[in-house]
Amino acid sequence: MKRHNLYAALLLAAVGYGCAQGPSASKPTTDVAKLSEAAPKYAQTITAADLSKHLHIIASDEYEGRNTGEKGQKMAAEYIAREFREDGLAGPVKAGANPYYQTFDLQKSSWGDGHITVGTQKFLMMQDFFPFGASPFSTEQAIEAVYVTEADQIASKGANGKLVVTMLANPAEMQNKMRAFGAAAEKAGAKGVAYILDAEAYRTTAERFSHRLSQPSISQMSNNGGTTRPATIITSPTVGAAILGTTPEKLQQTAATATPASNIKILMSRKAEPLATENVLGFVEGTDKKDEVIIVTAHYDHVGVEESKTGDKIYNGANDDGSGTVAVIELAEAFAQAKKDGYGPRRSVLFMTVTGEEKGLLGSEYYSQNPIFPLENTVANVNIDMIGRMDYDHEKTNDSNYIYVIGADKLSSELHQINEEMNQKYVNLKLDYTYNDENDPNRFYYRSDHYNFAKNGIPIVFYFNGVHDDYHQPGDHADKIIYESAEKVSRLAFHVTWELANRENRIVVDSNKK
């Protein structure tokens, strides 16, 4: 008896001593070296098989393309929240019935009646001109027009309350020119900007956008039921010539010197109703630096179901951005398990799948304007939008061992360095910086949810596999994802997030590029 009891006592003492030396959920380690050593163990929990399992669910036909505010998006939100809850993440939202949901209303709008009249001439909306975005012309209004060639001329032209008119000689410049003109027109108080295309460019634009514009669009809810943003109008040369008081044949030569018509009236009615949607948030609280937060994002919405001559087409959005969504789910599970084992992050990590990205980065914009955690305490954003496919260039060489890295050096040289080091140490992907170029005409840096953090001075890194034939097409299916590639990118995102959360000092912000 005594020998047995002595043996038992020694065994218990040994076990107890071992527990005291290792971390536990109640006594987590804050030792940087120990946390670094533990990282590979939890990265390895992110697997191709698990990514595939999740993605074949949320990108299935049952989820109906996850269109913002509709049934499939709600189903995906429930799935993500359930995963967060079951993995042990906290729901950080105090208001509302579900602590994993940041719920808010967007505005669902559709175009009604519309026309532009110039004297006795009447031009019809969706036929002679196309509207985009907002409309301050819900009732017919008389308006003056002013012609400019460059956006920086708008302020000096007395454009307040007027229609700014310009020509788009080259359709390839449309996106950049419209962005610059829209910003300058809004600042100057203009009511709208009309872009005149030549006949061929207008025909192509009409073919591209007529069906889309006949469908409801979604935007942020306006505070007063109206809008302060200028209208965007794409016109045929016939309409443009009438507005400028010239003829289509003489438009190119006389636009800059023509005297705009004095009897212009515009109606672009728009019907609006609220549309409820939600960002889905899971939270792993940090230890000794818990007030500082890293945010990991992906958008879980897509574009839904579109009617076609051959029947309904479900746009499953497996790559865009079901792939990023399931990566966030896997990263969240890895961090939650690490915390249970006593290796929880020093800084807090918020895992957020956002809604409304396809409608204009609306979910991340809402969060940036209504943050759950103060933006000044937000250290960085790791954004994952489209991983696990090959783009056109890489398909030529059948090379899936790459990822485009965008934005890591824009606000923090340290974030760029961390990404490089984590890749070299753990993953060995080819990091392609093609789309990080300031002069990249695709402007991908401005086209995903990270940008709503970057414009608030928060360093970001954006992982993206590039564009392919199934981009925004019904063929974007889960069985086309290269899950081994998605696994490697997800593990890189994990290691970068782990380093950001556990390093001694918060990364520096040493650039003003936003």
Strand-pairing-aware structural class = alpha/beta
Total E-strand runs: 18
| Low-pLDDT segments, ≥5 res | 1-20
| Integer tally of domains | 2
Radius of gyration: 27 Å
Distance between the termini: 74 Å
* Shape label: elongated
Percent of residues in β-strands: 15-25%
CATH architect. name of the largest domain: 3-Layer(aba) Sandwich
Helix content: 25-40%
Give me the number of helical elements: 15
Q: What is the CATH superfamily classification of the largest domain?
A: Zn peptidases
The CATH topology annotation of the largest domain reads as Aminopeptidase
CATH class of the largest domain: Alpha Beta
Mean pLDDT: 92
For the largest beta-sheet, the strand count, sense and barrel status come to:
11 strands, mixed
Main attributes of the structure:
Aminopeptidase, elongated, 18 strands, alpha/beta, 23% strand, single chain, disordered N terminus, 11-stranded mixed sheet, 514 residues
Characterization of the model:
It is a single chain. The protein is of the alpha/beta class. It folds into two domains: 32-90 and 285-502, Aminopeptidase (3-Layer(aba) Sandwich), CATH 3.40.630.10; 107-273, Glucose Oxidase, domain 1 (3-Layer(bba) Sandwich), CATH 3.50.30. It has 15 helices and 18 strands. The protein has helices at 2-21, 32-43, 48-58, 71-87, 174-188, 199-213, 237-244, 251-254, 318-340, 362-369, 392-395, 408-411, 413-427, 451-454, 483-502, and strands at 101-118, 121-124, 129-132, 141-143, 145-147, 163-167, 192-196, 217-220, 231-235, 264-284, 289-299, 304-306, 313-315, 347-354, 378-384, 402-406, 430-432, 460-464. The strands form three sheets. Strands 1, 2, 4, 8, 10, 11, 14, 15, 16, 17 and 18 form an eleven-stranded mixed β-sheet that branches. The protein is elongated. Mean pLDDT is 92; it is low at 1-20.
